[in-house]
Structure formats: structure tokens, C-alpha cells
Amino acid sequence: xxxxxxxxxxxxxVSNVVAALQQLLADYRVYYTNLRGFHWNxxxxxxxxxxxxxxxxxxxxAEKVDEIAERILMLGGTPANTFSEYLQQAHVKEVTxxxxxxxxxxxxxxxxxxxxxxxxxxxxxASEANxxxxxxxxxxxxxxxxxxxxxxxxxxxxxxxx
Length: 162
Known about the structure:
This protein is mostly helical.
């Protein structure tokens, strides 16, 4: 028997979920690399806060990448695992040479907006497929990211008043 038989999920319904998870995986991998770059290259007034925050964020994203890849495997797919595949598929674009905190935070907010949109769409697809595991995963991600957006917007507004 296949894993989906034990999970009582229909492979044809889950195929759309797997495809959406593959897209999300590609975007998370590019996001992870961008966060590493922000962490390494940040300079200026907000260095201490942002250097630590970006490290916290890329550690969190690394964990999510693993969870998404494992979810793809649980649903009978094979996760992409090369950066060339990720770059071909990703909506999130590589960012380089951003030492300015405000600019880096804007890139993070734009990326998280892309991820939130995808996760909401994935939530709907997973619901249609009765895939509660993916629904739960996306709900958890959304809750965390909504708080992150609120915090980064608050930080950005305070920085803009200077």
C-alpha cells in the first residue's frame, strides 16, 4: 500500500496540494538565501537588532523548508532539491547587496506577502482534499507570519520617523 492509502487521502485531489507545496518550497529556499544575505551584509544604525532578527528568521525558515519537503514526501511527491530548480520555479527573486536595514525589511515584507498569499491558496486546496495535516501546517505558518508582518511594519514606521 501507498502512504496515501493509510492517510485516507485521494491522490488525484492531493496532487494539486503537492504542486502548491513544491511552489512554496522553491519560494522558501530563495527567501532563506535572501535572509542569509541580509544577515551577513546589514550595516548601520539597526545592525544589532536586525542582524539577530535575520538570523532568527532564517533559522525558522530552514525548519519550514524541512517541514514542507517532508509534507511533499508524505503526500507521495518528491521535493525539488536543487537551487536551479528553485530559481526556475520561485516567485520570490534573489536579492543581493542590501546593507540598509529599511530596504532589507521591505524585501522581507514583500516576500512574506507572497508566502502568505500562497499559503492561503494552499489552505483552500488542502481543505478541498481533506488534507488536515497541510491545513494545520499552513494555519500555523500564517499565524506566525501575520505577527511578523505586524512587528516589521511597526519597526519600519518607527524608523521612518527619524
